């Protein structure tokens, strides 16, 4: 199938309608960027962005409800399905912050607009120029002045134009390069790699939030190991994550990618991959500090702290310091999910960090999961109030200790999860320990 045919077939109806409306006002209109790339890579685009020679004022005149609140020429136009972004063809001026152009200039041709883009695989377009006759979809043409389709087919990531200029203009492109390489299984071509290496220090000017988002994008990609290795090999990891760089090993990218890999019972597992990326950092406070610098949400920080704690418990369990029953209870107390104990062992096995006893530990956890063996206090047939009333003791920290003893006894088959039996064991446990 030709590129044009693939793009015609894939274009959503609301996008096609919007292209026709823009063209009917006498303007050029093209689908650009990620949508073109994804369709030609055999994927389903998440966004359909358009470009045109119409200025923002002309677009707002043609579409009175359009939204325009930026200085880069992007107008939001509401369609039947979504707000679609339409950007005026432009060139970018110099960037004083290595992130955004200080000024933009609107231009008349799609070729000039594509020349400002980051990578050849993102510098392709589909549509019609101003003055061309015919439907912009059924008669649309494929524009690829930088050979993006050839690079996509050959699995090569190449900067548009002079590579060094592309990364001076926007330091985030160094991380985007790693993400695209990971997502599409690409090799970064030598001159582009050299330019990233030379501009690596500029990534230190990026916001932590943008860095964190790109890292998560790499970890969610099919070939996360390619992106992680690129960040390290090109000197970016040393700037954005010195704590990881200091503990780097050549095996780390593969270990991270093995967690939640396709076909795994836990796939996808981006949080597990993030935990594995941080696993070489020995100090929990340092790991938390790195996540904070990346502006990750509090929920992510809490979840990662729990996974790191669960990993320590798994180490003890694999060494025989904690049996499978206690291990499962302790991990569930950390994360709130009974099945996280098995997941954590599977992560360790996938990453090649588990001890020889891990297989036996995993089998015991999976068997307990399958049988729904109680592991949380809420699973017990009696609650804290029942315990306090039966024993005639004011509620306190002792309740948690007794409940854990009950869960262990149930897991070992010493008592059934029934009120009368549990209260008898609770009496004994309280007398022995309190």
Write the layout of secondary structure elements.
Layout: H1 3-10, H2 13-24, E1 29-32, H3 34-40, E2 49-52, H4 56-62, E3 74-78, E4 83-88, E5 90-92, E6 104-106, H5 110-114, E7 125-128, E8 141-143, H6 148-154, E9 156-157, H7 163-169, H8 172-184, E10 187-188, H9 190-199, H10 208-220, H11 224-233, H12 236-240, H13 242-246, H14 252-258, H15 270-278, H16 284-293, H17 298-318, H18 324-335, H19 340-350, H20 358-370, H21 384-391, H22 398-411, H23 419-433
Parallel strand pairs: 2-4, 9-10
Antiparallel strand pairs: 1-2, 1-7, 3-4, 5-6, 7-8
Q: Please tell me what the overall shape is.
A: elongated
Helix content: 40-55%
- For the termini, the CA-CA separation is 76 Å
User: What CATH architecture label of the largest domain applies?
Assistant: 2-Layer Sandwich
Largest sheet: 6 strands, mixed
CATH topology of the largest domain: Beta Polymerase, domain 2
Name of the CATH class of the largest domain = Alpha Beta
CATH evolutionary superfamily of the largest domain: Beta Polymerase, domain 2
What is the number of helical segments per DSSP (H or I, 4+ residues)? 23
Structural class designation: alpha+beta
What do the pLDDT scores average to?
94
Widest sheet, order of strands: 3-4-2-1-7-8
Task: Estimate the strand proportion.
Answer: 5-15%
* Number of domain modules: 4
Question: How many extended strands?
Answer: 10
Give the radius of gyration: 28 Å
Describe the structure concisely for a colleague:
This protein has helices at 3-10, 13-24, 34-40, 56-62, 110-114, 148-154, 163-169, 172-184, 190-199, 208-220, 224-233, 236-240, 242-246, 252-258, 270-278, 284-293, 298-318, 324-335, 340-350, 358-370, 384-391, 398-411, 419-433; strands spanning 29-32, 49-52, 74-78, 83-88, 90-92, 104-106, 125-128, 141-143, 156-157, 187-188. With 434 residues, it is α+β, with helices and mostly antiparallel strands.
